[in-house]
Amino acid sequence: MELTRKFVSVSSEFPGVRTRELLEKRKTYVPNGIGNNTPIFVQRAEGALIYDPDGNVFLDFAGAIGTLNVGHCPPEVVEAVQMQAGKYIHTCFHVAMYEPYVTLAEKLSQITPGQFPKKTMFLNSGAEAVENAVKIARKYTGKSGIVSFTRGFHGRTLLGMSLTSKVKPYKYKMGPFAPSIYKAQYPYPLYRPDGMSEKEYASYCVRQFEDFLLTEAAPEELAAVIMEPVQGEGGFIVPPIAFVKGIYDICKKNGILFIADEIQTGFGRTGTMFASEHFDIEPDLITMSKSIAAGMPISAVTGRAEVMDAPSPGEIGGTYGGSPLGCAAALAVIEKIEREQLVERSRQIGQTIHRYFIGLQQRVPLVAEVRGLGAMFAVEFIDPETKQPAKEFVAALQKECYEAGVILLTAGMYGNVIRFLTPLVITDEQLAEGLDIIGKLIQQRYSLLRK
């Protein structure tokens, strides 16, 4: 099948000469443990396009793992960072405060779920946001236990790894891990028992959690439950609304704080500003990063004012937390999302991806499920005969996609899921071209399997 190309352009000699030189230098000076999904170096990037040093052009369907909802180098954000850098780059908020920090905290209080007074602290990364949300929860409740969920991902720091479910590559031989961490079962609707309705399955999963509180962790010892409203690394699993509401209600009844990890789901990705809105919950604490600032390193914890005020001065924070450049970028990002109605655009992108792969599913039985919220969409591949996850198929597909000009990420415990994190500023034409390339490569690979 001939692939239609208007935006992408990849030489048959990819990787090119300059890229090969950089790969050799990377091999010499960068540790093996720093993984790479593609052998691509970036010379410049704009919107949904990436240009490498050898003249190749790629469509970016990965968005720096969900960091670029407003795209690469949005002019408004670039200008905001440049203007801020011309005034002052860093003073450390603990030493000399600055207005962008306070203004961004005010804005997050306004746009995050929950009609109650809120306060916000800023950090550098998603893992730091998670670490501090846990510290705050423990300080406020006076309890130590934290519950996370199977297939959840919360970072690579010690506490982040302890909360994270997948062993390889995140935790293998990295222990011992932090104590007082418990893992509860998270739903996987694709695998719900035969004959069980969606409503029955949600109730079953809530009962599992209730049993968990009897067999694994007493509510009186739990400070918080931390949950990704839609699991990211775990495979873009969308839980039943009744499950999330059920866990939330159990937390409220038992004095357990509910932490929503919105690091990958936030800022329009799921078709609402925050995924928690889909489930009609008002988390006590929300962790944010990734698309908050178009790639500038900043993260946030926003929560109920009385909870956020539990730590005493000096007990939370950090030298670079909430840098002026990051705050300026984040304010410009939020303004762009609101002005250009990118939340609505997210829903449109998701509908397009859904329609395309539902159609493809009729021709390729390996496509077991097409799922997602907004533009946070995934396709899971399972061998229809053996019922085993088609991990090798997906790994080969990912390689063929970037060689054809589309950067794509996998996900899931078995690596048998492709996930879509396209910038929300991607054009209809760019999205169609990328889907066309991916779809034709899927059909080609499936045809080879059948021979």
TrEMBL record:
Protein name stated in the entry: (S)-3-amino-2-methylpropionate transaminase
The keyword Transcription regulation belongs to this UniProt entry's keyword annotation: no
Pfam family, one: Aminotran_3
Gene source species: Paenibacillus alginolyticus
GO molecular function: 4-aminobutyrate:2-oxoglutarate transaminase activity
TM regions (residue ranges): none
Cofactors: pyridoxal 5'-phosphate
Keyword Transferase in annotation: yes
Gene: gabT
